[in-house]
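User: Please fill in residues for this 337-position structure.
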């Protein structure tokens, strides 16, 4: 049994706690809120008989696993963004999954060529547009730098991992020089200093501070369906699935990695493979409002209401390789100033 201790809003593992070695357990470190992933783990336990011990935190899990070293209880790391997937690989805390199930189920663009990670659900980086003031229903990412949007765009920090992923995708698609030019144009169109989270962009659109905000697909659905106080923000906006001019919509991943020193490796692989299966993919779709990575699994009706997702074909691993370049460009153009 893993011991859990409260630290702020996160549950973290006390260093030195004895690792669970029983064949009927698997230890998961996750950046997802426990309430969002517990239905998955409950269903897995019911089907497999394997108990899932969960450690949830908002940051620092890669470093924690690295610090714990060979004594780490971690079997699986469940992440919420390509940035943290890449951070885990760069920290040297993962090992190849070697799973035929994952290779057959998860499209190649959503998994690591060396088997270090795999996506288990997708979210798109989209536009929350004012229903009253924005008449167009299609917008390209490139168009966000068009002067016609001057003073009309709201966005959170350019260094946040969600925007870093989008900007890295732009670098991957167009190169650093064009990405810098685009970022300068986007900055010039901002209605205010980048701040807040994705929900706050919808709030500011609803308040008339800007006409379009940038956010992830699932936040709008959560505001509409699960948060009465923020539902008016969703009701004042519509979701537009932007695309690259010569491609599709940028998607990011919730990913899963096998820990380098996993004490329950066999059970960890069973859980990872189960997360890519029909039941787990359906739970992800309906509980977290994310897109399934497995073909044939229905998208939640609210998410489907945005329109058909035409995901850009760029491999996530290539985008991850341009994260540093994107971050450097954000500072170079003074995006957050």
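Assistant: Residues filled in for all 337 positions:
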């Amino acid at each position: 049994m893993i011991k859990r201790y409260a630290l702020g809003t996160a549950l973290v593992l006390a260093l030195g706690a004895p690792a669970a070695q029983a064949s009927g357990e698997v230890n998961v470190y996750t950046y997802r809120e426990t309430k969002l992933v517990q239905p998955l783990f409950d269903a897995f336990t019911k089907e497999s008989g394997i108990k899932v011990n969960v450690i949830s935190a908002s940051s620092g899990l890669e470093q924690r696993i690295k610090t714990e070293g060979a004594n780490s209880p971690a079997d699986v790391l469940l992440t919420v963004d390509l940035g943290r997937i890449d951070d885990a690989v760069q920290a040297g805390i993962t090992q190849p999954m070697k799973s035929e199930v994952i290779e057959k189920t998860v499209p190649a663009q959503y998994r690591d060529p060396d088997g270090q990670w795999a996506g288990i659900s997708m979210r798109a980086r989209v536009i929350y547009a004012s229903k009253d003031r924005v008449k167009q229903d299609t917008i390209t990412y490139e168009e966000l730098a068009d002067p016609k949007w001057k003073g009309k765009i709201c966005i959170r920090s350019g260094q946040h991992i969600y925007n870093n992923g989008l900007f890295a995708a732009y670098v991957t698609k167009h190169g650093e020089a064009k990405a810098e030019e685009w970022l300068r144009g986007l900055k010039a169109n901002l209605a205010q200093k980048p701040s807040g989270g994705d929900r706050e962009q919808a709030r500011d659109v609803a308040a008339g501070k800007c006409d379009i905000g940038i956010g992830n697909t699932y936040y709008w659905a959560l505001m509409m369906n699960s948060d009465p106080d923020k539902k008016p923000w969703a009701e004042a906006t519509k979701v537009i699935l932007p695309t690259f001019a010569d491609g599709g919509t940028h998607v990011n991943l919730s990913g899963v990695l096998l820990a380098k020193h996993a004490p329950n490796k066999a059970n960890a692989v069973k859980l990872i493979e189960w997360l890519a299966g029909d039941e787990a993919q359906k739970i992800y779709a309906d509980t977290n409002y994310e897109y399934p990575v497995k073909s044939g699994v229905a998208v939640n009706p609210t998410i489907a209401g945005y329109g058909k997702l035409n995901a850009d074909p760029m491999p996530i691993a290539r985008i991850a390789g341009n994260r540093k370049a994107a971050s450097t460009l954000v500072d170079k153009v003074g995006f957050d100033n």
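For context: Residues 1-22 have pLDDT under 50 and may be disordered.
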